[in-house]
Amino acid sequence: MKREEQSARKFLAVRFGTEPTYEPLGKYKPPDFSIGRTAFEVRRLNQRFFRADGSNEGLEQVLIPLSRAVDSALARIRFSDEHGSFWWSLDFSRPLSGEPGDIARQLAKAARGHYAEGSRELKEIAIGDVTLELRPADKPRGKAFVMGARVDGDSGGFVGDIYPKSIRLALEEKIVKTAKVAKMFDHWGLILVDFIFAEIVTPSDLGQMDLRLEHFDSVAVITPDGSLALEWPEDSLRRCETPEQA
């Protein structure tokens, strides 16, 4: 079960007072959960990067593999008490100039040279639009390079712009995915687990959201710990209740 599904399971169990059934129609088939005659689809709510051709992807689709590749490449550099440790930070924007693994190897090669020199100066290494910053740590930490921060140059923006667009895209995707089984359930709810600005967004941040729900009755945004953050339309989760729960 994915992390977002675990969050949704916790939320549904508390909200509806019963343990939801996981993948009621079979493994990897929608919906993700059901409670009685109500189906629930779950999705990670993430910020999207839009390409020139109109296609889009979640920001983490570049952030995660690039960060892991850099961390893995730097971890191969042998630690020395004499040379100490460095905090490493990554700053990048899309499109990348190459594959994450290739970029990571080039950055690590330059980082290895800087470390071998014994310098304790701040160092910036750039490969295309990816910059690795090496900042000397105040004391040795058992590794040559320790992760400090990651800055995605394509993230950020106004909350009121990011959320409606991300929610709309997630809903459109789920409408298509569940179309063939929509009539098998009386009600549908979409549970979006917030990995953008978790726990700091309120309904007033969204303003007017005009979502085309189709066969969905409700869209709920929850935090990774399973708490309800937003519900659209307001109080719409009641439509997903069975007669026994109403």
SSE inventory with pairings:
Elements: H1 3-16, E1 21-22, E2 33-35, E3 38-45, E4 48-50, E5 56-58, H2 60-75, E6 86-92, H3 100-116, E7 123-127, E8 130-136, E9 145-152, H4 159-178, E10 187-194, E11 218-222, E12 228-232
Parallel strand pairs: 3-10, 6-9, 10-11
Antiparallel strand pairs: 1-2, 2-3, 4-5, 6-8, 7-8, 11-12
Helix pairs in contact: 2-3
Describe the structure.
This protein is of the alpha/beta class and 246 residues long. It has 4 helices and 12 strands. It has helices spanning 3-16, 60-75, 100-116, 159-178, and strands at 21-22, 33-35, 38-45, 48-50, 56-58, 86-92, 123-127, 130-136, 145-152, 187-194, 218-222, 228-232. Strand 7 (123-127) and strand 8 form a beta hairpin. Helix 2 runs parallel beside helix 3 (100-116). The mean pLDDT is 85. Strands 1-2-3-10-11-12 form a 6-stranded mixed beta sheet, with helices on both faces.
